[in-house]
Here is the input.
Amino acid sequence: MDATEATHMRKPQLVRADGLPDRVTIYEVGPRDGLQNESAIVDVAVKAEFIRRLVDAGLTTVETTSFVHPKWVPQLADAAELLESLDLPDAVRAPVLVPNERGLDRALAAGVREIAIFASATETFAAKNLNSTLDEQFAMFTPTVQRALAEGLSVRGYVSMCYGDPWEGDVPIDQVVKVGARLIDLGCHELSLGDTIGVATPGQVSALLAAFAAAGVGVDKLAVHFHDTYGQALANTLTALREGVTTVDSSAGGLGGCPYAESATGNLATEDLLWQLDGLGIHTGVDLQKLVATSTWMSAQLGKPSPSRAVQALAG
Here is the structure.
């Protein structure tokens, strides 16, 4: 994309719709969830530049990395080195994923102020991803969360396989709510409800959010995390916004998947999300033009085109 093309980049026509929030927080997961599934190791300097460009585009929440054991996710073995190389503005949230107390020790040593933990809504994924059962996973999370809170950190809880599991099929809504409510009771300030294999449809989204509300978990504590395997991510996101959700996870350029679930394709692309939000007049503070340029640059670093439809259309 040259300067002339960037200057004349098309923008969506702004037409507001009723029943939607005025502002949405985009929780950018590209540097962590996006890159963790890349087989070729990305240089730490490239990762750092990617994060800086995302922040320059206006993203104020960027999940940077994970302190998981390098054996399980080699791509993120450079977590401490990456964080040391960053000098982000104080206003930018830079959470990291922490699987256990050992990961928390490393995060604290790196000066992290916000972490995320990863839970499963199904037995099979808990076994494959956490080497645990559905109930036993909480015994692992509890000391990690308690210590993080005692250190003054904010803790986000991810719940994976909320809408379907590749081994178990349909996932009962009450099962998802029980897992999420336990994370809130542990002290998580926010729950990200993950459609890990991208099978959700809008009716499921509405039903799950309603079930959380009935269980006393307000929509202000919920975020949504959709994958686009069946092309439903934007429809599901719009449904969640109409239900009052104001935090949406997405990945610049549509990077990502899940190393423990082969049927999980890329995350909702931040650019695709932003095209929709900009067209609806929903404020995010993110510059679509800069973001497309960032993802175009990152695609060149990875040596493959971005799956984002908006990037494809706008970058030419």
